[in-house]
Design goal:
This protein is α/β, with parallel strands linked by helices. Helix content is 43%, strand content 16%. The strands form two sheets. It has a six-stranded parallel beta sheet, sandwiched between helices. α7 links the parallel β3 and β4. α10 packs across α11. The radius of gyration is 25 Å and the shape is elongated.
Length: 340
């Protein structure tokens, strides 16, 4: 394995000059010497010792990402975008899966801090609270796909209220009035905002929006299936309950489960019941029928979160920012006019 001295010898420079080229300083290097060093690095396939560089320079070139679950395709696709952006910037991504469990969140946060991660990206407002429990100086943090209710940390997310309203408005355009809502877990802010968007749009249309039309579930296929059963299975409702003709589902992952539940109940989508979901993941294209879904701009969200975090790493005094994106509706085949 080539060493720094080997690179210096081939480039006809001192080992210190090789260090300046690799680390971008602290002293300037002439264009000719830099070219010789880079050529020697490539010829020898030299790879600097990242651990040693971190100990000397105080940077591990590592960013931690906490996600609730790899089962939800939205989180998986978002993590892929974030990893790509970080690799382009010379950083590695360390992923912790929390399952929204407080103990796991504390464990992952402790581990990332101990390993001197340069920054943290959190897809969890609860995890942010766990981070703040630590008394030592914390690395820069950006919250992704969540809202920091304390308004003290940079956040990047979609407009959940408007997105939900757009999804419900599409169902209304088909003639649906009795539209039920499958929400995410409570009291997650994302879940609350999407329910608020559903309710406000129903109110604008003078359509039913009572709490008996809302069922909560985890952002998973199982959560969606259980919530759909609660809304659509007459055995789970009081006599006289009028079933909805359409569902607004708060995530694509839940919509997968809702489709399965409809099949078990003998309901055809969209002939018997229409569905619009939220997220716009790749998986929504491959359900039967393909889902109509409110697509979040994943690439913009991931790239912006990385940009904000790297700016804070480079300059810790960088002011906090909240960036809100708008989603757009992707029309599939899961909607039709209600049957009379």
């Amino acid at each position: 394995m080539a060493t720094r001295a080997d690179v210096a010898s081939l480039a006809n420079v001192s080992p210190a000059v090789v260090s300046y080229v690799i680390n971008g300083g602290p002293r300037p290097v002439s264009r000719e010497a830099r070219a010789r060093v880079n050529a020697a690095i490539e010829a020898l396939d030299y790879r600097p010792n990242a651990v040693a560089s971190a100990l000397r320079g105080g940077s591990t070139k590592t960013v931690g990402l906490l996600i609730p679950s790899p089962v939800n395709p939205y989180f998986a696709e978002l993590a892929e975008v974030i990893e790509h952006e970080l690799l382009q910037a010379g950083y590695l991504l360390s992923v912790g899966i929390t399952h929204e469990d407080a103990k796991l969140q504390r464990t992952h946060v402790r581990s990332l801090i101990d390993r001197r991660a340069d920054g943290l990206l959190l897809i969890s407002s609860d995890a942010l609270a766990k981070v703040r429990e630590h008394k030592e100086q914390l690395p820069p943090i950006v919250v992704v796909d969540r809202v920091d209710d304390t308004d003290s940390t940079s956040c990047v997310h979609v407009d959940n209220i408007q997105g939900a309203a757009t999804a419900v408005e599409h169902l209304q355009s088909w003639g649906h009035q009795r539209i039920a809502c499958i929400s995410g877990p409570w009291p997650l802010r994302t879940s609350k905002d999407r329910v608020q968007g559903w309710r406000e749009q129903q109110q604008r249309a003078a359509a039913p929006h009572s709490s008996d039309l809302v069922a909560q579930g985890a952002f998973t296929p199982q959560g969606g299936a259980e919530a759909a059963e609660a809304l659509l299975n007459p055995d789970h409702r009081q006599p006289g309950y009028e079933k909805p003709t359409a569902l607004f589902v708060s995530s694509d992952a839940q919509a997968h489960g809702a489709l399965h539940a409809c099949g078990r109940l003998g309901l055809r989508v969209p002939e018997d019941i229409s569905i619009v979901s939220f997220d716009g993941t790749q998986s929504a294209r491959f359900t039967q029928p393909p889902l109509t879904t409110l697509r979040q701009p994943l690439k913009d969200i991931g790239a912006t979160a990385v940009r904000l975090l790297l700016a804070r790493i480079a300059s810790p005094q960088e002011p906090k920012k909240t960036i809100v994106f708008q989603g757009n509706l992707v029309v599939g085949g899961s909607c039709a006019a209600p049957r009379h």
